[in-house]
TrEMBL record:
Entries under SUPFAM superfamilies matching the protein: PLP-dependent transferases (SSF53383)
Signal peptide limits: none
GO term, biological process aspect, one: glycine biosynthetic process, by transamination of glyoxylate
PROSITE patterns attached to this UniProt entry: AA_TRANSFER_CLASS_5
Homology family: Belongs to the class-V pyridoxal-phosphate-dependent aminotransferase family.
GO MF annotation: an example: L-serine-pyruvate transaminase activity
Protein name: Serine--pyruvate transaminase
Binding site for substrate: R346
E.C. number: 2.6.1.51
Length: 371
């Protein structure tokens, strides 16, 4: 007979999901109510305010999509790209490549700025590409490339985009709550994230925010958005505060309690304090890794604090080390992807995982396994 599933208790220090805070897990277990219940609707309004705080924006259209980060990516592309549109997309890892795939599937024409894995997007390359393609009206890039640990300068890239009359689509799945992100001050137009990284929440929700310029572009569409579920015009009917909420889909009620709780915790800590905590713990982890003779592959000023890519020393079977860490310490580290498969470990310090005991466990366990 198949019995109830009781997962092992792990310490999650990979690329996400990160450790979920006990307060968030407790919120998930609260009684399910109807998704049009007045109490739930009040919670949704608070959730939108809390997301605005996290994204640092006043954007009215700020909400969680009821699906994982990839759906956050998709809602941006299916609404902002029409068949035949040229879109400049920066690829310096797995998720830039996924953006390109989205552009192709919406009938857009991707113009690729090919970057190096493990490096930030090069603003000069972006400027040259936008000059060479004056018809492009969108620039898409990943602020925090989880596949490599490289952080790109979203503010500078947005400035360049606007100089060339382009809007920006920004992947902030790993950035939100973990490193500086200023949607309004940097003029970012459409930004998406995920619940499972630096927000200490469970996977499965995609916070998004759209500025007025992006919404105007959606209103000006000549063609219908090909996805029913992700059509912003329809989703807004449910999430918008101005009009009476209409049924669109059954909201993942308990998952939204969890996101609400994680954002309440972020507000209690302070957004800037959360960025500083991630930076501080990154420095502590780095010191521990360097003491073991391990090296981070991303240049110092392009490193993400929340995702640390470590070069696997020669002669070490990286998969064996990870499986021993899981078996003996219940500790999960991430493997390299794509070009970096087999060459790096990815050590996440995201959200509730970004705390001193995790760093001690990780450095101690690696010291033991590598000695
Ligand atoms: N973008 C980035 C930078 C990510 O790290 C991830 C997930 O790891 C995604 C997009 C996709 O998010 P999800 O796996 O929740 O669909």
């Amino acid at each position: 007979m198949i019995r109830s599933f009781n997962p092992p208790v792990r310490t999650l220090m990979g690329p996400g999901p990160a450790d979920v805070h006990p307060r968030v897990l407790a919120a998930l277990a609260r009684p399910t109510i109807g998704h049009l219940d007045p109490a739930f609707v009040t919670m949704m309004d608070e959730l939108k305010d809390l997301l605005r705080l996290a994204f640092r924006t006043e954007n009215a259209l700020t909400m969680p999509v009821s699906a994982p980060g990839s759906a956050g990516m998709e809602i941006c592309f299916v609404n902002l790209v029409e068949p035949g549109d040229e879109v400049v997309v920066c690829i310096n890892g797995v998720f830039g490549a996924r953006m390109k795939e989205n552009i192709e599937r919406t009938g857009g024409i991707p113009i690729v700025v090919q970057g190096q894995w493990g490096r930030a997007v090069d603003p000069n390359q972006v400027e040259e590409t936008l000059k060479a393609h004056p018809n492009a009206r969108l620039l898409a890039f990943v602020q925090a490339e989880t596949s490599t640990g490289a952080s790109s300068d979203a503010q500078t890239l947005a400035e360049i985009a606007h100089r060339h009359d382009c809007l920006t689509i920004v992947d902030a799945v790993t950035a939100l709550g973990g490193s500086p992100l200023e949607v309004d001050a940097w003029g970012l137009d459409a930004v998406y994230s995920g619940s499972q990284k630096c927000l200490s929440c469970t996977p499965g929700l995609a916070p998004v925010t759209f500025g007025e310029r992006a919404l105007e572009k959606v209103r000006q569409r000549k063609t219908k958005v090909q996805s029913w579920f992700l059509d912003l015009n329809l989703v807004m009917g449910y999430w918008s505060g101005e009009q009476k909420r209409t049924y669109h889909h059954t909201a993942p009620v308990n998952a939204l309690y969890a996101l609400h709780e994680s954002l309440v915790m972020l507000a209690e800590e302070g957004v800037e304090q959360a960025w500083e905590r991630h930076a501080h713990h990154h420095r502590a982890l780095r010191a521990g890794l360097e003491a073991l003779g391990l090296e981070l592959i991303v240049p110092v000023d392009e490193r993400l604090p929340q995702l640390n890519s470590v070069a696997v020393p020669g002669g070490i079977d990286e998969a064996l080390v990870r499986s021993r860490l899981l078996q003996h310490y219940n500790l999960e580290l991430g493997a390299g992807l794509g070009d970096l498969a087999g060459k790096i470990w990815r050590i996440g310090l995201m959200g509730y995982s970004s705390r001193p005991t995790n760093i001690l466990l990780c450095v101690g366990a690696l010291a033991n396994e590598l000695s």
